[in-house]
Amino acid sequence: MTATNLATLGEGCRTVPLAGHVGFDSLPDQLVNKSVSQGFCFNILCVGETGLGKSTLMDTLFNTKFEGEPATHTQPGVQLQSNTYDLQESNVRLKLTIVSTVGFGDQINKEDSYKPIVEFIDAQFEAYLQEELKIRRVLHTYHDSRIHVCLYFIAPTGHSLKSLDLVTMKKLDSKVNIIPIIAKADAISKSELTKFKIKITSELVSNGVQIYQFPTDDESVAEINGTMNAHLPFAVIGSTEELKIGNKMMRARQYPWGTVQVENEAHCDFVKLREMLIRVNMEDLREQTHTRHYELYRRCKLEEMGFKDTDPDSKPFSLQETYEAKRNEFLGELQKKEEEMRQMFVQRVKEKEAELKEAEKELHEKFDRLKKLHQDEKKKLEDKKKSLDDEVNAFKQRKTAAELLQSQGSQAGGSQTLKRDKEKKK
Amino acid sequence: MDPLRRSPSPCLSLRPSSPSTPPCEMLGPVGIEAVLDQLKIKAMKMGFEFNIMVVGQSGLGKSTMVNTLFKSKVWKSDPPGLGVPTPQTLQLHSLTHVIEEKGVKLKLTVTDTPGFGDQINNDNCWDPILGYINEQYEQYLQQEILITRQRHIPDTRVHCCVYFVPPTGHCLRPLDIEFLQRLCRTVNVVPVIARADSLTMEEREAFRRRIQQNLRTHCIDVYPQMCFDEDINDKILNSKLRDRIPFAVVGADQEHVVNGRCVLGRKTKWGIIEVENMAHCEFPLLRDLLIRSHLQDLKDITHNVHYENYRIIRLNESHLLPRGPGWVNLAPASPGQLTTPRTFKVCRGAHDDSDDEF
């Protein structure tokens, strides 16, 4: 990459000798000053099972105590927790984002464990892509949240990689720079460690997992990077406790059988990791993320959306034309959908109207029926009443007739009784 | 108010807008500042690019000035003598060189504009220049929106335009004013008083004040633009510069011996004008501005402000343009369409993105 840059720089133009001091050798300083005033940002993703010491290692790496509590083992699924911190060293401001997987490897069924991680990384790329494609954009002040490096924590079993590790790393290697680390390396002895490292590297190679190789094309760092490449994966220990060893305070872990010093290169590779990650290759990690992983994502995404660079007649298509076409297509679809919905609505209304009319008719019929019934009843009742009245009248007549007879009879009977009494008396 | 009188996009803070995050105290050295060295190494490896355009009437010493600035024979051709006719139309010549100093490689592209303002009728003589500038933006934009992009897009955009004002001693001419108004919206413009050896010190000062007055009246915002000052240090530094703009410069590429020293200068019967002597002319100020202190700033403002403004117009206008292969190539005759003034802001908080996303 570097060789081509110099070549393109000098291609087609002559090199002119300078007759004196012009002064543009201050250019790198100007550039650096600009960058310093803007600040840097760096995003680390820590992937590993719960309890492997991810948070402790971050604390140890950056020599500070980040807030947070240890995660439980009872998470239902893998989640990613992201925290951003502002660090400052002399005049360099660093915005550090640490993303940690919570609950990785705790489930019984781990088939989908890698999915949240991949989705998270893609989401960061997507956010950047959206910002880049905006018409009014502010890329130079945009807070870059793309993951620059993924530290993959391998459990110190001493045997080989777990299949979960292999699967996850295979899914991540085209999206992010992976640096595998053997965590809690104080659980492995030296001889086991060498064998473990060899086994891991051979497994990674045989499965085609591409981990991040420290760049060896620039002379100033080629040597150190080359040797470090041979030490991958780094066996690290993290500790935030300081113990007095000799006459210095050092970060270490104390056991009954001895003390493990974090910054002692004979004990673990922590110093190597810090060198590589921060002091030598931070800029390269960011550049790889931007020029390789992000470009790959962008290319796939744009092709998926249907954009092309050239059409079959090899006339360069423009992104704008395809924008236009897509936009018109989209609008057309929207219109069609709207039409459909409107028609459906009208139909439904008609149906409902018909239903209601039916119901109304029924009601009318019922009403008529009831009315008829009611009238019949009424007529019947009236007939009955009439007959009853007739009977009553008849009865009354008979009663009056009977009474009349009775009264006549009683008169006659009275007189007759008088007569009878008289006769009796006689 | 005259719609042409519009300064380039207002207040833009170039500092990143970050959500408020808790600052953390580090208990010991971590090594974060090593990233500065990494940046430097990367920059030295990649090399730098700088594109400068010199505009002015013929005979004002543009080519000599460029040679003096970069201390090399950038322009091989001799200035047009009596036998060479002045060009009938404005042409643009571009030359690219690679110069190296102490391991820093700079790819320098100088664009000259012979024939500017030389005709009897100078209507729209700025159109080819604006067209050229916009064409560079267009090329960059085309490269940027490709699906498979190059790792490093070659930057041919004009970072700085040095405008040579003839030393009349009065004030800016209408041609100057028209040109500056149009150009300061598209590119960083640095006006200079050319051939200042024909003015005395007092005349220079008066001329300078009058030019500054003219610039203020016509709302021409030349580099360094006040609205891009980020902090108090920048403001102080740039205010000092703004006070001296336009610089009164003299160009020379021949060496003479003065008091035992070898200096660049112009030899006349009444003395030697030393180019690098602050008492004689302000060439060192120009050189420092362009090369030693503000080169990166020029590039940044071109990339973050002028290019973005161009991109916004370009992407917005395409909705109105009919679809077809014709618009991909920007015809140099139609830049007027793209320089119609519009009020747009490239401002951190003012987005109306809802209809910009697709």
Automatic annotation (TrEMBL), chain A:
Instruction: Write out the annotated subcellular location.
Output: Cell projection; Cytoplasm, Cytoskeleton
A GO MF annotation of the entry reads: GTP binding
Which superkingdom?
Eukaryota
User: InterPro entries in the record, alphabetically?
Assistant: G_SEPTIN_dom (IPR030379), P-loop_NTPase (IPR027417), Septin (IPR016491)
Region (Disordered), start-end ranges: 404-426
Q: Which family does it belong to?
A: Belongs to the TRAFAC class TrmE-Era-EngA-EngB-Septin-like GTPase superfamily. Septin GTPase family.
Among PANTHER family, the record links this protein to:
SEPTIN (PTHR18884)
Q: How does it assemble?
A: Septins polymerize into heterooligomeric protein complexes that form filaments.
Q: What is this protein called?
A: Septin
Organism of this sequence:
Gorilla gorilla gorilla
From TrEMBL, chain B:
Segments traversing the membrane: none
Q: Which Gene3D superfamilies does the entry mention? A: P-loop containing nucleotide triphosphate hydrolases (3.40.50.300)
**What's the family?**
Belongs to the TRAFAC class TrmE-Era-EngA-EngB-Septin-like GTPase superfamily. Septin GTPase family.
Question: What CDD domains has UniProt attached to this entry?
Answer: CDC_Septin
* Family annotation (Pfam families): Septin
Write out the GO cellular component annotations.
cell division site; microtubule cytoskeleton; midbody; perinuclear region of cytoplasm; septin complex; septin ring; sperm annulus; spindle
Keywords noted in UniProt: Cell cycle, Cell division, Cytoplasm, Cytoskeleton, GTP-binding, Nucleotide-binding
Per UniProt, residues of the Septin-type G domain are: 46-317
Location within or outside the cell: Cytoplasm, Cytoskeleton
Q: Which gene encodes it?
A: SEPTIN12
**Role noted for this protein:** Filament-forming cytoskeletal GTPase.
Q: How does it assemble?
A: Septins polymerize into heterooligomeric protein complexes that form filaments.
Please identify the protein, giving its name as recorded.
Answer: Septin
The record's principal subcellular location, in a coarse class, is cytoplasm
* Species, as recorded: Gorilla gorilla gorilla
Q: Which domain of life is it from?
A: Eukaryota
SUPFAM superfamilies (alphabetical): P-loop containing nucleoside triphosphate hydrolases
**Which GO terms of type biological process are on file?**
cytoskeleton-dependent cytokinesis; intracellular protein localization
Q: Where is the composition biased (Low complexity)?
A: 6-18
> Which InterPro entries would you find in this protein's record?
G_SEPTIN_dom, P-loop_NTPase, Septin
Q: Where is this region: Disordered?
A: 1-24
Gene Ontology MF terms: GTP binding; GTPase activity; molecular adaptor activity; protein homodimerization activity
